[in-house]
Amino acid sequence: MDHISKYLTKEIKLSSYDDKLFKSDLMFDDHMLIWFISGETKIIQADATYYFKAGDIFLIPRNQLATIVNYPKNGQPHKTVVMHLATERLKRFYEKVEVKKRIISDQKIFSFTNHPLLESCLTSLIPYFDLKGEFPESIASLKITEAITILREIDKTVDDVLANFDDPGKIDLIDFMQRNFMFNMPMEKLGYLTGRSLSTFNRDFRKFFNVTPQKWLTEKRLELAYYQLAEKKKRPTEVYLEVGFEDLSHFSFAFKKKYGIAPTQLLHV
Question: What are phi and psi of 205, to 5 degrees?
């Protein structure tokens, strides 16, 4: 995979993938504002799937589990400008802004397709990536503040996300795992998202599921794959990434071990 990232600062980068496909399961520590220059992205979350293409701009809230699949398109690489909206910078911004705090149960991905103000803000960063030497922090700060200000002007509800600095609280482990088993995350991350330390997460998991997390995750992913293959008639190459496997051969081996047949055989049943 030919992946190139050019950083203006640790919060602003130009990212480019030239390979056919790149898939990752992610949970961002910062809110991510992303502008597409070329290529396509598919973002799969527990309750929704999103597709983004050249010209699209979107905001992914932090602490959200997602499978992200990046594709080149029409001979062009998958290229994006990415701006991290870090917690400490947002805290400084909101010290000067009065907002009414609301409790929100789910944080959505915000989409701002072809919005002229945001596109102008992000487009203006492109020439800086060719500069030699260190990019001034004062300019970076101005550009990030500009982006935040535009976001708040476009969508008043964005404050519910950007001005929320709380860590995840303790939540229902069974419900969380049933909705998010397809994401490959370290157990420490899953524990954090459910408001638990790693040891508490493992203890509670065994208490509720009577099996280790890894064994349960593999079983759930294979069950979902069987449904997608048998009922939806999807191909194994379409399924293995979406259900949480990283490698097609490993998926095929695990599937045959559980069900006694290769995934491809279900296509002819």
Answer: -65, -45
**Closest by Cα among 149, 171, 169 to 159:** 149
Same domain, 41 and 158: yes
CA 268 to chain centre: 34
The pTM of this model reads 0.83
pLDDT tens, 87-138? 999 999 999 888 877 666 567 899 987 789 999 999 999 999 888 888 888 9
Please list, in sequence order, all residues whose beta carbon lies within 8 angstroms of the beta carbon of residue 189, skipping any fewer than 6 positions away: 27
| Structural domain count, the chain | 2
As a whole number of angstroms, the distance between CA 76 and CA 208 comes to 48
pLDDT in tens, 17-55: 876 778 888 889 999 999 999 999 999 888 888 999 999
Helix 198-209 crosses helix 213-230 at what angle (to 10 degrees)? 60
> Do 158 and 186 reside in the same domain of the chain?
no
